[in-house]
Amino acid sequence: MTNDSKPTPTGLALLGCGTVGTGVLRLLQHKDGLKVRAIAVSDVHKDRGAEVDSDLVGEDIDSIIQRDDVSIVVEVMGGIEPARTAIRNALNSGKHVVTANKALLAQHGAELFACAHKNGVELMFEAAVAGGIPVVRALRESLTGDRVEGFHGIINGTSNFVLTQMSEFGATFDDAVAEAQALGYAEADPAADVDGHDAAQKLQLLMYLGFGLSLEQQVRDIRGIRALTPLDFRHSEAFGYRVKPLAVARRNADGVAAWVGPALVPMGHMLANIGGVYNACFLHSEGLGALLLSGRGAGMMPTAVSVVGDIIECARKQRGTKGRAPMEGTVRSEVLANMDERQRIFYLRFTVVDEPGVLGRLASSLGSFGVSIERLVQEEPGGKEHTEIVVLTHLTKQTALKAALNDIDASDFTLAETLWLPVEDPDS
Ligand SMILES: NC(=O)c1ccc[n+]([C@@H]2O[C@H](COP(=O)([O-])OP(=O)(O)OC[C@H]3O[C@@H](n4cnc5c(N)ncnc54)[C@H](OP(=O)(O)O)[C@@H]3O)[C@@H](O)[C@H]2O)c1
User: Fold this and answer.
1) What distance in Å separates the CA atoms of residue 291 and residue 216, rounded to the nearest whole number?
2) pTM of the complete model
3) What are the Cα distances from residue 43, in Å, to 48, 54, 114?
4) Which atom of ligand 1 lies nearest, measured to the CA of 46?
5) Would you say the CB of residue 20 lies under 6 angstroms from ligand 1?
6) Is the CB of 144 under 6 A from ligand 1?
7) Could you tell which of 24, 36, 41, 52 is best to mutate to test the pocket of ligand 1, judged by most ligand atoms within 8 Å of the CB?
8) Catalytic status, residue 202
9) Residue 218 CB coordination number (10 Å)
10) Which residue has a Cα nearest atom 19 of ligand 1?
11) What is the rounded CA–CA span in Å between residue 218 and residue 106?
12) What number of other Cβ atoms are within 10 A of residue 30's Cβ?
């Protein structure tokens, strides 16, 4: 305990400080109770900006791992060695490990998970499958009481971006890959992504979690997206399908059928509408039925979110924290906003008498309360004595809208309470 009786922060060692590592450091700035004690990189002389404390940076991975003030090791170097040895040493030293390294786990996961088990520590890897999407947590925790029947994933953002460009804009494969590279969505050598191997590694981890399939059984049916041409998209769409880069695993009577490759998905299916660099996992389980998780499957901050989530889970375990309540000190910092003061667009349906002048009175009443009209449609009365007028407003405060509707609903030309619905765009 320190002098002011706050608990001693949990010490972290970061192995790697590239894209993901930098994102992790950025998120940790706002997390109390966790402290990075040391950072391993391959080039200590590289300029890493103000975000990285240069006093923490070193090259000797093993001495960083063995520090007494480090209890969680975060491996975000990538590659097989020295990551494999570093993780094994950390686990054997009784440290929890968080990694984002799907290639390593797909190849050597069996050995490393056994090592974690033997030492009674965690080896966590949420970021290794679908970056920021909490699919590992869903399989490991939320669905653990159910029986997973299968999953269909779009788990390689590069391939999904390339196929979306080809299908929506008629781009060729080479042009779409070049654009993905220019936007930072594809590596200089895109082979692991576009040939399906990255998705296969992630599928392996999903099957390990979902079905308990040994990591030693490698997915064999892997196809990439290089052979597709704009013609394939045109014809698939004419047949009612969209071409998507899938990773699929289903329980069958004779075992788990697993494959990776582009496939035709019915246009109306949720997965058909996952475009660009977005990832998605469509899980099927006996009790729950279908569950779709979708979001950003790569990139600095989405991946770092998953890594830091795992770090916090390890820290809680290490401190013996029980339960799921929010962390101390975070509960009272938010307040409910006053909805009346929020500016929104509203849809209004007025039921009014079908008489000349009503439209003008309606518009002027709205205007007098500061509610301006973006679109207005009057329904044909069709022989009835009343008519319905539908309005879309410009941005307006709910207080102004309610005052206007009180006035209008009390008037002699209104026949029923006006219906109002806010416009809510989840992406804005
Ligand atoms: N980027 C993503 O969107 C993403 C998404 C999901 C998962 N991942 C996984 O996250 C891991 C890291 O990816 P990244 O994109 O952050 O990689 P990156 O930008 O290339 O960073 C790698 C870091 O590791 C350090 N490093 C490499 N070899 C080392 C060695 N032998 N000893 C010490 N340090 C070494 C590098 O040091 P220097 O800085 O000195 O070069 C660098 O700081 C990979 O396993 C990747 O598959 C990444």
Assistant:
1) 27
2) 0.85
3) 10, 12, 32
4) 40
5) yes
6) no
7) 41
8) yes
9) 12
10) 18
11) 8
12) 7
> Phi and psi dihedrals of 90, rounded to 5?
-65, -45
Beta bridge partners of 392: 347, 375
Q: Are 355 and 362 within 8 A, CB to CB?
A: no
User: Which residue from 56, 77, 98, 300 has its CB within 8 A of the most atoms of ligand 1, so it is best to mutate?
Assistant: 77
Q: Are 375 and 391 in contact (CB under 8 A)?
A: yes
Q: Is the CB of 302 under 6 A from ligand 1?
A: no
pLDDT per position as a tens digit, 197-233: 999 999 999 999 999 999 888 899 999 999 999 889 9
What DSSP string runs through 403-426? Answer: HHHHHHHTSTTEEEEEEEEE---T
Sole residue written with tokens 């981890």: 205
Strand partners, 97: 73, 123
Q: Give the nearest ligand 1 atom to 22 CA.
A: 16
CB atoms within 10 A of CB 262: 20
Q: Which amino acid is at 6?
A: K
What are 270-322's pLDDT values in tens digits?
999 999 999 999 999 999 999 999 999 989 999 999 999 999 999 988 887 76
- Main-chain dihedrals φ then ψ at residue 270, nearest 5 degrees: -55, -40
Give the whole-angstrom CA distance, residue 32 versus residue 398. Answer: 38
- What is the chain's length? 428
Query: Does the C-beta of 100 come closer than 6 Å to ligand 1?
Result: yes
The atom of ligand 1 lying closest to the CA of 48 is 39
Q: How far is the CA of 79 from the centre of ligand 1 (A)?
A: 8
